[in-house]
Structure formats: structure tokens, C-alpha cells
Design goal:
- The protein has 439 residues and is an alpha+beta fold.
- The chain folds into 2 domains: 170 residues, Electron Transport, Fmn-binding Protein, Chain A (Pnp Oxidase, Chain A); 262 residues, Glycerol-3-phosphate (1)-acyltransferase (3-Layer(aba) Sandwich), CATH 3.40.1130.
- Helices cover 28% and strands 24% of the residues.
- The protein contains 12 helices and 18 strands.
- The strands form 3 sheets. The chain has a 7-stranded mixed beta sheet with strand order 10-18-15-11-14-12-13, sandwiched between helices. Strands 3-4-5-8-7-6 form a 6-stranded antiparallel beta barrel.
């Protein structure tokens, strides 16, 4: 365990350990309003959207680690330093090579540590303040190893611990939907720009192509929830992709539920196209937008994690899923507490095959469709009349609780690979069956 070494006693001007006075902080309840476990006792000023955090929640937030600020009193003014840290039991531990902090730890001076965080997704903010005394730390190589590396380069051999004698925390309550500037219920278009009237008009144009040109068919459609939010994850293909248009049209036609499709931010900036996409349910791909649609509005959201890596593949790489990025879509589903529903789409790779690609970087490039090679530039806008099949897989449900501020990257990566693997296996099976039929 952590071994704390005391090098000296407090000076006469300092009070004894554990009884150092806490500076007056406006808006915080007095210490008498906290019980011995650090749990908040209701106070008259507990409203106004400010939540007093229990000691257990404060320790949980400290346990996330990261970078905080240590404040040490000096003769002139408090000295504040940013430090990266770890939580060990009832101590905040950091490394330093600075003379001021080393001296303060040797003398056992009182100090305060503060860490905070904000979430642009739900407009919450929190702050935790720990008050105690500094002391040197002796890591026992046999029993204890500090998982702590210096944030900035330099020699920082000394480990310093701050005892958590007093602990307080605050959280600003999330902004409720009622307080947001949104369009009135039932308005058209809605506050995302989606217009039911435009969707009906688009449906009349798309339906002949959907039914007769691509002969679009579904299997496993019962796996898409009839109620509540769900993140629909599909493979992406085609230099001029039609999978989003056809998938959204099919689900709305079959289930009668609106579908919002996440797209690249750059598409919104294009003249006219940005407005057309918004009126048809297109939303800029961003965690804030995904969380609000999934959690607050309980909508169906369609995403293509491959992005442009999927639409710029050559024909020889057809149905080989590209990298799914950092798993932001999985973390959004975890935070919203909704399932991920994979959809394997077969046929789009053959509708616009690209035998040649002009490389831009290691993963993307400019695809040259076969139609463009045969018919010239106008051929790039023509799809072959290939039958397209969509197979909806069973929902992927996560064990992690919803609404956390942070999810371990290893768990997010494992969940992302789980979704990708199931989708790849389904694509392998569907394409193999298609080859047998064609043979």
C-alpha cells in the first residue's frame, strides 16, 4: 500500500492535521451540512440546478484521473500548479520535480486539489475539491506500483500525496429539453430541419427506384425496435452511395418510424445539398447530435462508421469492412443506453464498382467507377440495376450503465470490434450466398 513519509511538522502559523480551515467558497454549503460520510444534507440553496455530490461520487470522479490543479499557500499568494494524478484510496498522488511542491511535501503543508469537467453533450459541468496535507510517498516495489507517468517531459522523481481530509463536489444539472430552443411539437420542419412533407415527396420519387431498379429486400426487420431509440450501423459502398437513401426509405416505409442519418459535416456546407439533406433527415455526425436524438428523443439513427473509407474502396476490396474509427458511435449508444443494430447491405458494391482509385492518402482516394470508364463522366451518376439485400442482425446491448461521463477506452474498443465482427460475418455469409445463386 501507499507509504507516506512525514519529514516535518507544520509551522506555528498552521493548524494541526485535519483541522486546517477551508477557504470560503461562494455557493458551497458549510461543512456542518455534510454528514461524516460526506453525503449532502439538503440545504435551502440546493436548488437552481446545482447538485451537491456525495463523497462516493466525488471519489469516483477523482478516480477517473487526468489533470487537476494543486494549490499550496505561500507568503505572497497561493501557488497553483497543474498536475496529472491518480487516486489511491484516500490520497491524491502526483509526481513533481518542482522545488516549491517538494518543500511543501517535506513540511507537510496544507493544500487543496481541484479537478473539474464539462460535457458539451448534455451541458453539465462538475467540480471536486479535496483538502488535506501534502506528504512524500515511498513506492514499495513489492506491494505497490504507481500507474503514473509525467504529463510533461522532465525529471520528476518525487511522488507526493495529498490526504483527502475534506471533500466536496458540485454538479450543474443538465439542460432539460424544455429549456432548449426547439421547434414547437408537431411543426414541420422539426428542430433538426427534417420535414415530413419533404420526406413524403422524396418517398414518391425514391420508391420506383427502390422497388424496380434495385429490387430492395429485407430480412430480420423485426430486430429494429418499434419504439425507443436505437443506433443502426451499416456498411457503406459506392462512389455515389445510395445505401443511406434506400435504407432510410425502406425502414420508414416498412415500420412507419422516421430515421435520421448522420453524415459528414462537409456535406452541410455544399450549396442546396445541405438543405436537401436536412429536410430528408440528414444530421451532421457529432456525439452531441447522436446523444440528443438517441436519448432525449428516442429516435432511430443511421450511421456508416466506415465513412469515406467505405465509399472509396476498389472492387477487389468489396465487402471488406474498413476501420470503424475510434468507436465514437458505440460510446454514444452506451451513454444513451440504447442498442446498436447492425445492418449488412449486399449489392451496393456491384451497383457501382470502382476498378481504379486515385490514392490521396493511405486509406482514402478518388474512386473511378466502371460506368465512368465505359460511358464517360456522366456514367459516374448511373448505377447498375443490381438487386440489393439488407439483413438486420440482432441488437447489440451493452452491459455498461448509461449516462456516465467516461467509458474505458478498452471497453469501447472491444464493443466496437464486436459490432464490426458481427457485421463482417453477416456480409461474408450474404455475399457467399449471392455468388452461389449467380453461379
Amino acid at each position: 500500500m501507499l507509504q507516506v513519509t512525514t519529514h516535518g511538522s507544520p509551522t506555528g502559523s498552521e493548524t494541526s492535521r485535519g483541522t486546517s480551515p477551508e477557504p470560503d467558497r461562494a455557493g458551497e454549503p458549510p461543512l456542518d451540512d455534510l454528514d461524516v460520510g460526506g453525503h449532502a444534507v439538503p440545504t435551502s440553496d440546493s436548488g437552481g440546478g446545482v447538485e451537491v455530490l456525495a463523497r462516493a461520487e466525488c471519489l469516483r470522479l477523482l478516480g477517473l484521473g487526468g489533470v487537476g490543479r494543486i494549490s499550496v499557500p505561500t507568503v505572497a499568494a497561493p501557488a497553483i500548479r497543474p498536475v496529472n494524478f491518480v487516486l489511491d484510496g484516500e490520497h491524491v498522488v502526483f509526481r513533481t520535480g518542482e522545488t516549491l511542491l517538494r518543500t511543501a511535501s517535506r513540511q507537510g503543508r496544507p493544500a487543496e486539489f481541484e479537478i473539474d469537467g464539462t460535457s458539451p453533450i448534455d451541458h453539465t459541468a462538475w467540480s471536486v475539491i479535496a483538502t488535506g496535507r501534502l506528504a512524500d510517498v515511498t513506492p514499495d516495489e513489492h506491494e505497490y506500483r504507481l500507474p503514473l507517468r509525467p504529463w510533461a517531459p522532465g525529471v520528476k522523481q518525487r511522488f507526493v500525496a495529498l490526504s483527502i481530509d475534506q471533500l466536496s463536489g458540485r454538479r450543474l444539472a443538465p439542460v432539460t429539453r424544455a429549456s432548449r430552443a426547439v421547434a414547437p411539437a408537431g411543426s414541420d420542419p422539426d428542430d433538426w430541419g427534417r420535414s415530413a412533407a419533404v420526406r413524403r415527396a422524396t418517398g414518391r420519387l425514391v420508391n420506383p427506384v427502390y422497388r424496380w431498379w434495385f429490387r430492395f429486400s429485407w430480412s430480420g426487420l423485426a430486430n429494429i425496435p418499434r419504439h425507443g431509440g436505437a443506433l443502426l450501423v451499416a456498411n457503406h459502398a459506392g462512389a455515389l452511395p445510395v445505401d443511406a437513401m434506400l435504407t432510410m426509405h425502406g425502414i420508414e416505409k416498412k415500420l412507419g418510424r422516421p430515421v435520421y442519418g448522420l453524415h459528414h459535416r462537409g456535406l452541410r456546407e455544399l450549396p442546396y445539398l445541405g438543405t436537401i439533406l436536412a429536410r430528408n433527415g440528414g444530421v451532421v455526425a457529432h456525439p452531441d447530435n447522436a446523444l440528443r436524438l438517441l436519448r432525449d428523443e428516442q429516435q432511430l439513427v443511421l450511421v456508416f462508421p466506415e465513412g469515406t473509407k467505405g465509399t472509396t474502396k476498389t472492387y477487389r476490396d468489396r465487402y471488406r469492412l474498413a476501420r470503424f474509427g475510434r468507436g465514437g458511435f458505440v460510446e454514444a449508444a452506451m451513454r444513451a443506453g440504447v442498442p446498436v443494430v447492425p445492418i449488412a447491405i449486399a449489392g451496393t458494391e456491384e451497383s457501382m464498382p470502382s476498378p481504379v482509385r486515385i490514392p490521396i492518402d493511405g486509406e482514402t482516394g478518388i474512386p473511378i467507377p466502371l460506368q465512368a470508364l465505359l460511358l464517360g463522366p456522366l456514367g459516374a451518376f448511373i448505377h447498375f440495376p443490381v438487386k440489393i439485400e439488407a439483413h438486420v442482425l440482432p441488437p447489440v446491448v451493452f452491459d455498461q450503465p448509461a449516462g456516465l461521463d467516461h467509458y474505458p477506452p478498452s471497453e469501447v474498443a472491444a464493443a466496437t470490434e464486436r459490432v464490426r465482427s458481427s457485421l463482417q460475418a453477416a456480409l461474408n455469409g450474404r455475399t457467399s450466398a449471392r455468388r452461389k445463386v449467380s453461379a
